[in-house]
Amino acid sequence: QVEVVESGGGLAQAGDSLRLSCVVSGDTFSPNAMGWFCQAPGKEREFVAAIAYGGRTVQYADSVKGRFTISRDNAKKTVVLQMNSLKVEDTAVYFCAVDRNWLGPTLMRDMREYNYWGQGTQVTVSS
Phi and psi for 27 in degrees, rounded to 5? Predict the structure, then answer.
């Protein structure tokens, strides 16, 4: 049984920072890739960032490049999304996901490639 649990969402003002964490329990944490996706009201879920098992290969959506940073601690089975310079348009539910089949080198942006998902954490950014 694999469980993915996000935390750290909340209310923020434009320009503020938030730190989202994702903890994975179960045996499938390694080796794999991890991703963050977001879904705003009335919109489809979209890719935000992904990180490979080793932590050195990362990928970001163009909309968050330079503002968000993804990192992971395999010993703690944790993935973190540091969100800086938040914008109103970042408002969404953020989901953490596990790509247990990832073998490299390209990280997946397609949510269908991810096998396990958390319930999501709400991020609301006001102006």
Answer: -90, 0
**Residue 35's closest CA among 105, 103, 117?**
117
Closest CA to 66 of 42, 84, 40, 91: 84
Question: How does residue 104 score in pLDDT terms, banded at 50, 70 and 90?
Answer: confident
CA gap 10, 19 in Å, rounded: 10
Q: Are 120 and 81 in contact (CB under 8 A)?
A: no
Contact between 88 and 125 (Cβ < 8 Å): yes
Tokens of 70: 């993804």
How many C-beta neighbours within 10 Å does residue 17 have?
12
CA distance 31 to 5: 19
Residue 117 corresponds to which tokens in the numbers above? 């998902």
Neighbouring residues of 115: CB distance < 8 A, sequence distance ≥ 6:
28, 97, 98, 99, 100, 101
pLDDT digits (tens, 9 = 90+) for 62-83: 999 999 999 999 999 999 999 9
Nearest to residue 46, comparing CAs of 86, 4, 93? 93
